[in-house]
## 1
Amino acid sequence: MVKEVTCSAPVNIAVVKYWGKRDNELILPTNSSLSVTLDQDDLRSTTTARLIDSEGADQLWLNGAQVEITPGSRLARCLDELRQLRAQSEATSPKDVKDAQLPESRRALVIASENNFPTAAGLASSASGFAALAFTVAQLFELQMSPERLSRIARQGSGSACRSLLGGFVAWDMGTAADGGDSGARMVAPQAHWPDLEAMICVVSDSKKGTSSTGGMAATVATSALLQHRIKDVVPARMAAMEEAIASRDFEKFSALTIADSNQFHAVCLDTTPPIFYLNDVSRAIIAVVEELNRSSRALGQGTLATYTFDAGPNAVIYAPRANMKTIVSTILNFFPLADPFNDPKGYLADKTGDLSPPS
Ligand code: ADP
Ligand code: DP6
Ligand code: CO
């Protein structure tokens, strides 16, 4: 009998960036990080996992193209761990194994996943992708485990994926245990704690980046002295300050920390040998526009309007209180007109009267 499950997971965009591994196999980071998980109906990976009737090699299809599952790869390790957990539950509860039927833990998996946004372009597709994969296969195998436990399995697919198993504001505590048992996600605050905070995604380029996150951070760890300063002297205090900013919904503080962290992350990339350039001219122009918006808003005594952050790619994520989004969207569109003005899923664009209004 064919058994199949489909689930989705959202992306998360870090405001204190993970960049560097101290253990490449288990994916243990050189610093803690903190992110905001976006809504499930925005950027997401949707994954279907099917158990077929026979033994054999697992298969993965990503956005319609088959991806090879190399034995010992991160993907294979995630699937192996989930399969072992299933085998344990079959051993302790043999009724799960129907007569004359191959136990599920021995049947081959066929997995198909689709991202509804650009893959490998610096919009955290590995985060939503591996979170969706781990969650879907755990559902298929009917494994009972906490999101935190599942997050440690997803972490071994892609580090940032561990944060997408939880919603709202999520820390990834780096942990100290050699086996990674204490390196996983922790919810700092649920989304409902700060519902007024919105994210705007500016897709500057949907091309696959030239340097993957995995390759880029390995080069940084091997060559950057600035990374050592960041890990030791900057991130621990910044994590604590960011948690305070979120706890008190202090957008001024949240914004200053987010901008400083994005810029230091890109400085660390530049400090890598050979240097890694994830931002392009349009990314830098977006930074200039947001900085200028904030400068003029502050000059009027109205405080910071928006904050920006860039992952390992040229695409911007702008966080702002909902009331500021109308101004931000119209300003960004003024400088960077949309190729497709009808692509307006959030309803922020001009209606027939030319009035910009956020959705009610
Ligand atoms: P990004 O900035 O998009 O996270 P990465 O370089 O970190 O880019 O990772 C991209 C890789 O993540 C892809 O090449 C693929 O191996 C993996 N990935 C992306 N989406 C999925 C998915 N839906 N399911 C499984 N793996 C995925
Ligand atoms: C810049 O999680 O994609 O987005 O663990 O090697 O798969 P791997 O890397 P990945 O790195 C994400 C880096 C980042 C910052 C972040 O999400 O914290
Ligand atoms: Co990634």
Note: Helices lie at 74-92, 125-140, 147-155, 213-223, 225-247, 251-270, 281-299, 322-335.
## 2
Amino acid sequence: MKRKITVIGSVNMDLVTLADRTPKAGETILGKAFHTIPGGKGANQAVAAARLGAEATFIGCVGDDDFGRLMTQRLQDEGINIDYVKPVTHVSTGIAAITISEGDNRIIVVPGANSHVTAEYVQKHEEVIAASDAIVLQLEIPVDGVKKAMELARKHRVKIILNPAPFQVLSKEMLLLADYLTPNEHEQAELLAAGNWTEAEREEILQKCIVTRGAAGASIYQNGEKLIPGYPVEAVDTTGAGDTFNGALAFSLSGNADLEEACRFANAAGALSVTKLGAQGGMPTSEEVAEFLQ
Ligand code: ADP
């Protein structure tokens, strides 16, 4: 049986510039190359899940423009159900301006049509959410849209994975709606620093956390912190590693893997993804992950 994963989130065109170094404020330098690469955390996570073999559905909005049409087509080409991707007029498709230099990436996101994925829009798709094995969310769409999706998933007992990225302060009520929270190390630090948690609440949030730690792997907190080690690879571009991890985690958990097993699978998928340029470029199939793990 196919695993039904619904991603409610962002579509962005990644405008990627490669340079030898990062320019200082006010400085202009010559870059080495420029690429337009389909991205957005939501779209990336849907592609990650679909490549692995999930029956993936995407709920989101694009602008009524070339980037929007191109990316909707791309999602469809990946086998993702695009029936709930809405083109919105008078607004641009979301973009992410990414600079890669000195082995690091710097990113500015302009949400555009992604800001139309509101609670009202999400509510229209209750049946789609109800029919899913798991939903996957990030924070590149309005928080009320994210919260509505979580409430609907809760109502229908659908697994909820919330990737709290890019970081923003969320209510305790909202964090507790999630079954799994998948911050990276920076986001986890911000998450725990932001709330006025009691020790018990902090523990409750931690129990839901799967913290991604780059090449080191990911930590889980069921019985104290446990690091599930990552896999050494030659990293070419780490953009989208977290997205691959999230899509893979959703895929594995929907197949009833336990959390440790799901993290190992997601670490392997994440490692493979950094070996190629572009957020979606290196996202592996299940066969590729199986081969890598042999
Ligand atoms: P984000 O992209 O959200 O900052 P991370 O950098 O923590 O997230 O990466 C997510 C996951 O991808 C990691 O937990 C790990 O499994 C994998 N990963 C990331 N970078 C590397 C790397 N250099 N080598 C191997 N695996 C990596």
Note: The longest helix spans residues 259-273.
